[in-house]
Amino acid sequence: MNRNSIVVTVLIAAIVLSVAAVAVAAGTAKVNWVDYETGLVRAQEQGKPLMVNFTAEWCKFCKQMKAETYTDPAVIAYLNEHFLATMVDTDEQQELARQYYVRGLPTIWFLTSDAEKITNLPGYIDAPTFLQILGFIASEAYLTMTFSDYVAGLEG
User: Fold this and answer.
1) Which domains does the chain have, with CATH numbers?
2) Catalytic, out of 13, 62, 74, 141
3) Is 33 among the residues known to form the active site?
4) Cα–Cα distance, 49 to 89 (Å, whole number)
């Protein structure tokens, strides 16, 4: 990803943030969660990557992500624009959690629109870091650089 692409991505994110701030102020912004199967179908139809959030009711850090990260206006706007977001309860869908080798919670998997595994992230992730990760995945920068290089490009 070249410098111009990064600048354009940042500018688009700024516009999305402005729109998201208005929606949050009105109390209407939220992540458009869909179930896993629906997410797989829609991701392919829309050509968007899929984010699969493995969680459980009893998980302290899952609750923290729901309360803090997934309520952040920038995260909401970016997820809704660039991803299909799914939430999987590991107690209810144990076999699916096994298929993704979920060992701790929360665990987030990113998939291509064709359901190919990109990467997984275990543990709590704060909103600013998560927003950078979302940009890294959505821009497909992971194909050509490390996450550290991507973040350095944003800061430089």
Assistant:
1) 3-155 (3.40.30.10)
2) 62
3) no
4) 20
Quote the pTM value: 0.82
Cβ atoms of residues 142 and 136 within 8 Å: yes
> Does residue 148 have a pLDDT over 90?
yes
Given the residues 13, 16, 29, 59, the one annotated as active site? 59
Concerning whether 59 is annotated as a catalytic residue, the answer is: yes
Strand ranges in the chain using DSSP code E only, listed in sequence order: 33-34, 50-55, 84-89, 107-111, 117-122
28, two tokens: 């209407």
Q: Which of 50, 42, 64 is nearest to 123 (CA)?
A: 64
Return the number of other C-beta atoms located less than 10 Å from residue 2's C-beta.
Answer: 9
SS3 50: strand
Q: How far apart are CA 123 and CA 19, in angstroms?
A: 29
- 34-53 per-position pLDDT tens digit: 999 999 999 999 999 999 99
